[in-house]
Amino acid sequence: MTATGQDARNQAAHRSASASAALDPAALFTPKLVTVLREGYGLAALRADAVAGLTVAIVALPLSMAIAIASGVTPAQGLYTAIVGGFLVSALGGSRFQIGGPAGAFIVLVAATVMQHGVDGLILATFLSGLILVGVGALRLGTYIKFIPWPVTVGFTAGIAVIILASQVKDLLGLTLDGPEPGPLLEKLPVLWRALPGLDPAAALLAAGTIAVILGLKRWRPHWPGLLIAIVLASLVTWAAGLPVATIGSRFGGIPGGLPVPALPDLSLEKILAVLPAAVSFALLGAIESLLSAVVADGMSGRRHRSNCELVGQGVANMGSALFGGFCVTGTIARTATNVRAGAIGPVAGMLHALFLLAFMLLAAPLASYIPLASLAGLLAVVAWNMAERHAIAVLLRTSRGDALVFAVTFLLTIFRDLTEAIVTGFALGSVLFIHRMSQIAGVRRLPLVSEDRADTSADGGLPYDGAAADPQIIVYRITGVFFFGAASSIGSVLESISDTHRALVVDFSAVPFLDSTGANTVAGLVDKASRRGVAVVLCGLEESLRRPLEAQGVQAPKVTFAADVEAALAMLQGEPSAQEVRR
């Protein structure tokens, strides 16, 4: 057997195995950790995963605390989320490389939930969102969540970036506000402006220095852990110079030296109903964010994740995080990409990243008290800048007015209204735009009885439709594109132009890849009208998938005749004086 033949057989076997796995429910929900261990997991793989896990932990350590503080909770809760949630995401998820933990995209939702329902309400909403995610995954709805249009994801991500940046201005500049900081952007900006004369130069310099170190290392030493180095340097400067700036210790009293005892949140019906909208929002955003992160990992590694298994794993991780006092867990794109680039082999890297974070809490928790909040604000400012996909926004604004509108509406609603409302509205607009575009592609045209595309290929040099060309009573239409509800009206109006002077109508479906019930109903109406006028109808080029919706609408013999193609339909009609004979 040749090498080429063997490769072909191997590829066919792989496709067959993939298809079998897709049909097997157990395979669909088998965590990638089990898959990796079945493949054989040795010391070399463990060493590679340990290095990758440590690399990711170094990135996740300051980021988890910064996201927690920006969300209105303690830095310890950010670490609980990264440790418990991150471990469970990797152990039970459907991606080899996914890193779970607190994400910047959740800052807006978490802060609003804390403000409205308190920290206990946040923990309950997180627990409920986990139950929802498990249900969504168990019902195999993960595939549909990935249908969120790209302009929507770019829009809400950019909107979140703006809100994150605005939320960090107070700590970036060391401002002292007269009262609590408002949540909505339009209310926040005047309050920050009035407090601007009280700017703290030391805090502002620390924040600027943190940003400069992160950006400088990213450019000149991209493999160095820039986030951690910047935070360590800022902490050393604060301690050595005795700078009078707010730190984790001064505001939160430091972080504990271990995980708390797990406990169920308050599951009273009244509290559940109160936080349920927030739980749904957490689940929706978490599903989108985690599946996007898994897709990014697939693109970088050449692997393929299991969407529904990933959602189930994310759901269990959120419930586990809530039991330990943490908040929302999701797949994080930046940390997942770092994991892949660091050479991870499988989910063990993510599990070790969580254990490394736990070791920090156990051994070095007192050191976190010296971290200045201004430096964490600078870190989040860089995160917000990176979240706003400037190149993607420029592409959207240049290429399509429709996509630009979807982006703009999602972006503005995220900033000025609500993230869930922004996603739902953006998705609806994107769907309408898609329907409009598909309806523009679909069409119908009348064909001449002389084939233009096959005239030069006939065996005798003649024209294949010449025999019927002399019969003006036969009319032939070809439908192209998807025949669905968005195109049914325009196509139907053309087809219904038949008159009593025609004895036969041929409709060619060979260029129709899909026919929905509305399109089938349109054809059924056409057939009934033709039958009343004594006009025979021949449908040709129909695949089995197209015949089923037509037959369900009653489009079948003796009302119509089916033919393989236009030539066969015309040959069938030649010499037949009446529609009744065609039907017989």
Structure, briefly:
This protein is mostly helical.
Question: Can you walk through the features of this model?
Answer:
This protein is mainly alpha-helical. The strands form 2 sheets. The protein has a 5-stranded mixed beta sheet with strand order 3-4-5-6-7. The chain has a two-stranded antiparallel sheet with strand order 1-2. The N terminus and C terminus are likely disordered.
What is the mean pLDDT?
A: 85
Proportion in β-strands: 5-15%
Fraction of helical residues: 55-70%
Figure out the total of helices: 27
List key phrases describing it:
mainly alpha; Transcription Regulator spoIIAA; five-stranded mixed β-sheet; two-stranded antiparallel sheet; 27 helices; 7 strands; elongated; disordered N terminus; disordered C terminus; transmembrane helix; STAS_dom_sf
